[in-house]
Amino acid sequence: MIEFASFYQQIAKGPLAHWLETLPAQIASWQRESQHGLFKQWSNAVEFLPELSPYRLDLLHSVTAQSETPLSQGQLTRIETLLRNLMPWRKGPFSLCGVDIDTEWRSDWKWDRVLPHLSDLSGHTILDVGCGSGYHLWRMIGAGAQLAVGIDPTHLFLCQFEAVRKLLGDDRRAHLLPLGIEQLPALNAFDTVFSMGVLYHRRSPLEHLWQLKDQLVKEGELVLETLVVEGDENTVLVPGDRYAQMRNVYFIPSALALKNWLEKCGFVDVKIADVSVTTPQEQRRTDWMITESLADFLDPNDSSKTVEGYPAPLRAGLVARKP
């Protein structure tokens, strides 16, 4: 059974305490009403995993746990079988006491691109919106964060996160809550807020930026990563039914237009930290994610275009401050 009581206790004293006015009721409602048909199967896989106490934990350079003595082949097979019950694994990779999860995304590459542009995360309380399986939460802890809270309504991602947590020694510095950003009150309590790979899925992108701003303390830092297109400050692509086979893609601005949007929402010191092409080496089919991936979504005769004829995925990372 996935429980959240330890998180409630953790935030009961401190800047997030007022979240307890709404959060437990929302989680209770989710537990009663919202569960995916496979959630019981997924949560059972988490429950049957052993709780390991790693001899060595590296969250600074990767998400890696090592045991003091190698696990037996039987233990490794059991752990891998349970983790494969939680496929597809999209965000990672993870190396967990002898089991390597080669995820669809090389999320470590994204982290390496954005990390040099961040303020020091030491002692920070961080929110990661749309955090997926929580890979970046662990990297935030590795970079010195005191508490990293992820929100993502996808039930499979919650189970993947809890599975990784067990194999990392039940580390309670990171938490994932099955919520969307629209369910959060204006907490004004996080030193840093991340929104990576979310904005283009929002019907109202400026509203999303305001919601992110409402979670930050004064002088807090926003880290925003999203799809962009090339162009000037007035360039925005509004795709038709699909973009790279994704249905729910609404607005893809240029990096300069996105900078303007952030400034329009009251952010200051807005910097375009990185712009990079997403390659089939960074997002690809693996043994842990066996369905179609980026290579299948690009024009087979022209990799600079999607199968629909739009510009191929280009991503920008921006950093901004709430005054």
From TrEMBL:
Keyword annotations: Transferase, tRNA processing
Role this protein plays: Catalyzes carboxymethyl transfer from carboxy-S-adenosyl-L-methionine (Cx-SAM) to 5-hydroxyuridine (ho5U) to form 5-carboxymethoxyuridine (cmo5U) at position 34 in tRNAs.
Coiled coil region boundaries: none
Subunit field text: Homotetramer.
Broad EC category: transferase
Family to which this protein belongs: Belongs to the class I-like SAM-binding methyltransferase superfamily. CmoB family.
Presence of keyword Cell division: no
Cross-referenced InterPro entries: CmoB, Mo5U34_MeTrfas-like, SAM-dependent_MTases_sf
Organism: Superficieibacter electus
Reactions that this protein is recorded to catalyse: carboxy-S-adenosyl-L-methionine + 5-hydroxyuridine(34) in tRNA = 5-carboxymethoxyuridine(34) in tRNA + S-adenosyl-L-homocysteine + H(+)
One Pfam family named in its UniProt record: Methyltransf_9
Record bears the keyword Transferase: yes
Protein name as annotated: tRNA U34 carboxymethyltransferase
Organism lineage string: Bacteria, Pseudomonadati, Pseudomonadota, Gammaproteobacteria, Enterobacterales
The enzyme's E.C. designation: 2.5.1.-
Binding site for carboxy-S-adenosyl-L-methionine: K91, W105, K110, G130, D152, P153, T154, I181, E182, M196, Y200, R315
